[in-house]
Amino acid sequence: MTVQPARAVLVTGASTGIGQAIAIHLDELGFRVFAGVRKDVDGERLRTTASERLRPVSLDVTSSESIAAAAAEVVDVSGEKALAGLVNNAGIAVSGPLEFMPVEELRRQLDVNVVGQIAVTQAFLPMLRRARGRVVNMGSVGGRIALPLLGPYAASKFAMEALTDSLRREVRRWGIEVSIVEPGGVATPIWDKSAAAADELLDGMPPEANELYGDLIGAVRKEAQKTGEEGLPPLEVAKAVGHALSAEKPRTRYLIGRDAKSRVAIARVTSDRAFDSLIARSLTGRGS
After folding, report:
1. Calpha distance 50→210 (Å, rounded)
2. 86-103 burial string, b = 16+ CB within 10 Å, else e?
């Protein structure tokens, strides 16, 4: 599967993990990739792993000034009609018990994973409309099934499901395709970053947080570590993004990974309470 080299695509959150894999894979497919990074060192590292078509772009999705500068750079390099696709991949994972979750952390989660995605989309949509381009949002199986302690992250991914549906139905009149990719566990640094952030967050919570949720916290942390080591290779997610940007008829949703598919399949035929028990049993050995 190849595309015309002149067709440009912007990938947010391309520094590491899934975003990096997407940027490199799209470069290999022949796209001219604008790789959104927050640090210059990450951009330089990307340059060494891709062709000369790949261009790092400084981009912080929570900064309107940064988004505007990135949009201006894309127009300056490729022109106003050359943007074939936008991949909204940037994201963070905030975890912890909702009972003790600082509201500012919840706001930060939604600001990066939801508001930031829409802000970027708004900035680039005129270019996408002129080029009949495509939008690919990075969701998660967590956008369909929310696990304990991952409420803030799941909320952001549930929101992206809704926003993807709304956007797809709003822009179809211009031939713009909008898809969402829903991976299960993927082996990326986000799990280590999330665990470190969770430890820092828990240190600031009252002692009863650990007293009440300590066993669950330990179980979820163990699962996160396992996912970081044994999860799906990021390239599998990148391939789905490549299909969404290149296929004549892209899917509206790409559910990726056996764990994601099995979880969704079980949830479809199981009551909420029965599914709650299955999750509790898998994490802590207790079904209630």
Report:
1. 45
2. bbbbbbbbbbbbeebbee
Q: Give the three-class secondary structure for 36.
A: strand
- Residue carrying structure tokens 């050359």: 82
Ranges of each domain in the chain: 8-260
Query: Which residues, other chains included, contact 256 with Cβ-Cβ below 8 Å and sequence gap of 6+?
Result: 181, 182, 183, 184, 232, 236, 237, 240
The residues, ordered by sequence, that sit 6+ positions from 111 with a Cβ below 8 Å of its Cβ are: 62
Torsion angles phi and psi, residue 255, rounded to 5: -85, 115
pLDDT at 105 over 80: yes
Side-chain-facing half-sphere of 39: CA atoms under 13 Å:
5
- Is 31:18 a contact under the CB 8 Å cutoff? no
> Coil, helix or strand for 217?
helix
Helix (H, G, I), strand (E, B) or coil at 86: strand
Q: Burial code of 195-219, b = ≥16 C-beta within 10 A, e = fewer?
A: bebbeebbeebeeebbeebeebbeb
pLDDT at 188: 79
Query: Could you give the CA distance from residue 199 to residue 194 in angstroms, rounded to a whole number?
Result: 9
Note the pTM of the prediction, 2 decimals. Answer: 0.92
Overall fold of domain 8-260:
Rossmann fold (3.40.50)
Task: Determine the number of helices (DSSP H) and then strands (DSSP E) in the chain.
Answer: 11, 7
Q: Which residue do the tokens 């381009």 mark?
A: 133
Catalytic residue among 31, 34, 124, 153: 153
Grade residue 4 by pLDDT with cuts at 50, 70 and 90.
very low
Known catalytic membership, residue 254: no
